[in-house]
């Protein structure tokens, strides 16, 4: 059994951030998990339990950014920015007295790591980028926009799991029925007898309103700063957000970067499936 503790830590704007701790602190650097745009700590629950269990026994910290999961919604939606969320991570580290950590960043969480590489590189021991890099494909961004439009309330977890499988099944042929059910539990909260998306809808509105006809600026300068640390990139086999060409350029800039392709998965891969936990643990132990 792994010791699990939930805490709520205030950020600089007075919002309570939900943090879930797995295992006990050790002399080794802890592992901090940062979820994607509309995701929360439950995205990492299975992986965190595995990493915190013997023989690895990592101390794992998983964080729901403001407006996600059980963290407070921000009354000012303009503050939902990667820069503010990066500052929130540093605040949580300070509250938990963590000087340096190994990070696992999924999608938006990986973009937060790019910001931290520029603003607080000394806090990063190493990093796992889950289906994210310094250049994002417009096709993948538009896919996320469309998915947000279809995130409707559901009457129960079974219906929610079926809806997720209908929306993403083509990209995730690897997932079994149980995986879809777990995803539904992570993505929805009960509210007034219905299951609603577990994030502030203002975040979805903000992203849906983005003009993607103009390509977003690439973050190669930030990646080069991040690449001074040991890196692993995990790319979903069917990802439309992170291209193989971008991964090749990342590897050219950081030749020692570990590269893993999550078979039968799209954006963003579930990290507790197949050999991914083993490969992540081996990277963290290097």
Automatic annotation (TrEMBL):
Entry keyword annotation includes Metal-binding: no
GO cellular component: membrane
Organism lineage: Bacteria, Pseudomonadati, Pseudomonadota, Alphaproteobacteria, Hyphomicrobiales
Sections of the chain in a coiled coil: none
Keyword Hydrolase: yes
GO MF term (any one): monoacylglycerol lipase activity
AB hydrolase-1 domain sequence ranges: 30-268
Transmembrane segments: none
Alphabetically ordered keywords of this record: Hydrolase
Protein name, per record: Alpha/beta hydrolase
Any one biological process term the GO annotation gives: acylglycerol catabolic process
Domain of life: Bacteria
Residues of the signal peptide: none
């Amino acid at each position: 059994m792994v010791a699990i503790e939930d805490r709520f830590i205030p950020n600089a704007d007075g919002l309570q951030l939900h943090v879930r701790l797995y295992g006990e602190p050790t002399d080794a650097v802890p592992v901090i998990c940062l979820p994607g745009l509309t995701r929360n700590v439950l995205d990492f629950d299975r992986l965190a339990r595995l990493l915190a269990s013997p023989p690895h026994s990592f101390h794992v910290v998983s964080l729901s950014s403001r407006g996600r999961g059980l963290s407070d919604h921000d009354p000012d939606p303009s503050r939902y920015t990667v820069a503010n969320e990066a500052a929130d991570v540093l605040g949580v580290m300070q509250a938990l007295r963590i000087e340096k950590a190994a990070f696992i960043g999924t999608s938006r969480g990986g973009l937060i790591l790019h910001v931290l590489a520029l603003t607080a590189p000394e806090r990063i021991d190493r990093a796992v980028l889950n289906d994210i890099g310094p250049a994002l494909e417009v096709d993948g961004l538009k896919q996320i926009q469309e998915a947000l439009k279809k995130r409707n309330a559901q009457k129960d977890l079974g219906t929610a799991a079926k809806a997720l499988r209908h929306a993403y099944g083509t990209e995730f042929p690897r997932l079994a029925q149980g995986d879809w059910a777990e995803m539904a539990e992570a993505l929805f909260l009960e509210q007034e007898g219905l299951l609603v998306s577990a994030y502030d809808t203002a975040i979805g509105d903000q992203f849906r309103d983005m003009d993607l006809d103009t390509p977003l600026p690439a973050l190669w300068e930030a990646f080069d700063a991040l690449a001074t640390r040991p890196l692993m990139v995990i790319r979903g086999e069917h990802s439309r957000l992170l291209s193989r060409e971008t991964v090749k350029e990342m590897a050219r800039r950081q030749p020692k970067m570990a590269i893993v392709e999550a078979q039968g998965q799209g954006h963003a891969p579930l990290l507790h499936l197949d050999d991914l936990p083993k490969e992540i643990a081996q990277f963290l132990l290097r």
